[in-house]
Amino acid sequence: MTKNVLITGAASGIGWRLLRHYAEQTHCRAIGIDVQPIPDCAGATLLQANLSDEQACARAFDGIENLHLAVNCAGVSSQRKPLLAFDAEDITACWRENFLPAFNALRREITIMRSHGGGRIINIASITGHIGMKNFAAYGAAKASILNLSKVAAIEHAEDGILINSISPATIDTPMIRRKYGGQLRDYSGVYPCGGCGTVDDVLSVVRMLEENRFMTGMDIPLDGGLTSLFSI
């Protein structure tokens, strides 16, 4: 049986790695969606759409008849500044760019999976949605919204055979992270207990576990190198 796998935010970073992985599997039909053009990926169907726009999202999903697995990675980096320096437009813009793509895609994915007996959905959130990080008020709030959305969706659609979970990565080595430091990767060895930052393959390994697991829904997996277990005085 061919497994239909959808990756949103597939043009770079985590999404691009996941798309390439599933496109290489002989039993998979991989579909990638991004607001930016996706690099050529042999064996994958590539779609360009702004998923924060509900109508554009609906058009992108029109030709997708069945899904077994969907991973929602769409999102962007955001402004970093103190809470009192943010205004309502800053917060709204970040929420629009990071929460709405997951929300709009999730609704479409659930609708498709319900009519075919179920599936798996994984939302990529962030460790910033769990903890208080200075200067991350907008981004952290948007990602925290994805965490709760995932739980509510999981409970409402468990009876449809749809398992919905999320992953909350800390720093992952992606082009977006490297751009912040002039194309280089800063030294994270003093930040995370298990050493440097994570890789896109670390995220892939958790996605593959959730793809196979049959007894987990409504849960979030912090992929944070031990950061949220750390306590020091």
Report on this structure.
With 233 residues, the protein is of the alpha/beta class. The protein has one domain (3-224): NAD(P)-binding Rossmann-like Domain (Rossmann fold, 3-Layer(aba) Sandwich), CATH 3.40.50.720. The protein has seven helices and seven strands. It has helices at 13-23, 54-61, 88-98, 100-114, 137-157, 175-179, 200-212; strands at 3-8, 28-34, 44-48, 69-72, 119-124, 162-169, 220-223. It has a seven-stranded parallel sheet with strand order 3-2-1-4-5-6-7, with helices on both faces. Helix 1 links the parallel strand 1 (3-8) and strand 2 (28-34). Helix 2 runs parallel beside helix 4 (100-114) and helix 3 crosses helix 5. The model has no long low-confidence stretch (mean pLDDT 95).
Summary tags:
Rossmann fold; seven-stranded parallel beta sheet; globular; 17% strand
Major sheet details: 7 strands, parallel
Overall form: globular
The stretches of 5 or more residues where confidence is low (pLDDT under 50) are none
Tally of DSSP helical segments:
7
Rg over C-alpha atoms, rounded to the nearest angstrom = 17 Å
C-alpha end-to-end distance? 54 Å
